[in-house]
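ESCALATION

Customer reports they have been waiting on this structure for their group meeting. Please prioritize. Original submission:
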Amino acid sequence: MQLLIGLIGGLMGSLVGGVLTWLTTRWTLRQELEHGYDKELRTERLAAYRKLWQLTGALPRYPWPANPTRSDLRDLIERCHSWYFEAGGLLFSQSTKDAYFEMMDALDRAAGRQVSDDTRVADEVFEDLFIAGERLRLHLAADIGTSLRPKVLSPQLRPAESPE
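Update from on-call: job pushed to the front of the queue and completed.
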């Protein structure tokens, strides 16, 4: 009888150990796959988002020497549209996609419908465009993680010491 109890106990222990090993292995593999996918997505986003970031440079806080023309905005719309389908629209998170289309809608409203219009955009309209562009830039930075604090912190910076 003791032999039978020992055998059943051994089999139960082996079964429980096997199930725990299987669950742990499955969880570890899933974590590795998710981490690999996230790393690859961030790498692709970084390359693509860099190009869109540069395009949104046409919507600075301080336009100089003057606000853009409506034709300039139409050109920006076309370049962003090309970027969306050729480089990075597929990589957007939902919140970044929403911010992108908010910016595109604002550009479309400000640009008007004439193909060639050298009318400069009014200051208050351009301020709205800057805000829409800045909102998109914030989402781009969040998607690639540059708006987050580093996970590995560097030593604290110290004020420069006097050469004396």
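Sent to customer with the following note: Helices lie at 2-55, 70-88, 94-111, 123-144.
Escalation resolved.
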